[in-house]
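Lab notebook, bench 4. The sequencing result for the construct came back, and we need a structural model before the next group meeting so we can plan mutations. Quick request posted to the team channel:

Model the 3D structure of this chain.
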Amino acid sequence: MPRLLIFGFGFTGQVFARRMKADGWDVWATVRDPATAEAARAAGVTPLDPTDQAALVAAPPMDAILVTAPPNERGCPGLEALVPAIARSRAFPDWIGYLSTTGVYGDREGGWAFETSRIAPRSVEAGRRAAAERDWLEVGRGMGLTVQIFRLPGIYGPGRSALDRVAEGQVRNILKPGQVFSRIHVDDIAAALAASIARPRAGGIYNICDDEPAPTHEVNAFAAELLGLRPPPLIPYDEAGMPAPARRFWAENKRVSNARAKAELGWRPRYPTYREGLVAILQGH
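Done. Here's the predicted structure in token form:
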């Protein structure tokens, strides 16, 4: 039975764990609190304390490792915790995946961003992701590890989508002409990661996003239509009075290409636009 370690058992990590368990993998995951550890055990996932270096070293060799935890001011906590354990392991993993963000591209003024595009992060968080990417790729080259980078846009899925926000009346429906965002359904992330494990490429960098970058207000309107509700009222961007972090987010306007992932991994998003994704969530799929 192949073995997978997920460093950071959040939304995406849990969905990926379910997929890989269904494919016959023995899944382990790092968790920090007892409640999450108990939930992991209930899901058939073996929990590990990411701060317990002895436990990480004592764990059996992993065939694949996925790092989802965000970087902090010191860098990637997954790299800090795992590289010493990998170095002491009886066998190196065949695949290491690092989840990054399309925020590393910064603003493209509505143009397309490709994996070969210039990295120009405009926030502290995106800058840390770019640095973590570089660190992981350098470690991969130095140790002969097969490291892949996956750049993700806004992630949505069951319990975390425009349907939930619209139903709960939590949407500020901002209108900024010409502004679009790329998105990805969490199940499509899991499918892309599984496809990469089947076709590993050292140093591979992939944008994992859907086929149709779209304005947020259009997504909210479609969600409201599915729920039989009126669309939330539009708020012009200049009148929204958003805090600085939100303004930085809205200052970045780009379309992200997924062509490389399709060509190299044979991956196709099951939900090529937000419409298919939201319909599936509403239907409980």
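The longest strand covers residues 95-101.
Will bring this to the meeting.
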